[in-house]
Amino acid sequence: MASSLFTEPDVGALTLPHRVAMAPLTRNRAGEGNVPVDLNATYYRQRASAALIVSEATQVAPKGQGYPRTPGIHSDAQVEGWKKVTDAVHDAGGRIFLQLWHVGRISHSSYHDGELPVAPSAVQAEGQVITPDLEMVSFETPRPLETREVPQVVEQYRRGAENARRAGFDGVEIHGANGYLIDQFLRSGTNRRTDRYGGSLENRLRFLREVMGAVTEEWPADRVGLRLSPLSPAHGITDETPEATFSGAADTAQEFDLSYVHLVEPSEPKPPVAGDGETARVFAAVREAFDGALVANGNYDRESATEAIDSGYADLVAFGRAFLANPDLPRRLREGLPINVPDEDTFYNGDERGYTDYPTWDELQNGATAETLDALSELSPRG
Ligand SMILES: Cc1cc2nc3c(=O)[nH]c(=O)nc-3n(C[C@H](O)[C@H](O)[C@H](O)COP(=O)(O)O)c2cc1C
Fold it and tell me: Residue 243 is inside which H or E element, if any?
């Protein structure tokens, strides 16, 4: 019997050919000025058989950058560079959303001419940051945004959304996950503000709400998604009331009638999250609050992805590392073929190696070589 992964869902404005999406993947290979180049267009073109590609996280402003060579969407040159990518994906029959990003405190003054990164509050992230010169150094304590500055950052998201439209994307995904700026406003551990953007849940949700308002001025809401990672401890981020916080974020997506919510699930318990523990409660609360499409992500394999669709839990399943290493992943899942093993050493740096040189199944049959696994479930859980 054909797998339910290969039925055609409606996701907001789009009817998709199947349910295997490509998760956003930062690859640190933009050109000078953080402008996408031909090599990036080749990489995305190779993966155009995804139901939907979500681009790598893309900073909406220079202050939104915190890693080397990540692309931006704030200059005309970047818009031109992204056109190469969207044209390539569309030529190959695919669809691509841009992930709108601001890292907030997950940055370093070396990216900003010596100025401190900005954040909701002066709370230093745990761990280390990689500088533009590729040195690992401790995070600094960020500078809290003044109340009057917050609308200026919202405006940067609006401009990013407008530029994404000019660059030919099919939609945008607001990056509210993984400990970056929106997540920093949402969670009580990083949001200690006493103005209208902090304190009560309503106030902690305000920045996300204003970003959604700005982005939906530029795009119909049925072409806008929101990514969340409830309970993810990225860079030491914490929250005292995750169930209320993340169902509140999902409520906000519901109010705006967004196309989808994209949930990054923890590696344990194995997704799709079930049972009656805290994790299951938080994810169920998010699901309850939002009745648009749900994109599930995190350590899925063919079996668990099929289960997530069959049970009605998710509408799409996004694959990260597996898509990185398998440009023809939907076909491999459909036909139950072995998959190429991702090379972690080239995830976040380098050139075409580990980027555009992963062979398709047909290329493997014609003599290309790659280390393969019999099934996605053999891929080690992400750390
Ligand atoms: C190399 C790499 C880059 C990533 N970059 C992003 C990103 O730009 N934006 C984002 O929201 N998540 C990012 N993630 C997280 C993935 O989208 C995904 O949530 C994670 O890999 C788990 O899915 P998987 O088990 O299918 O790989 C990245 C993960 C990896 C491995």
Answer: helix 242-256
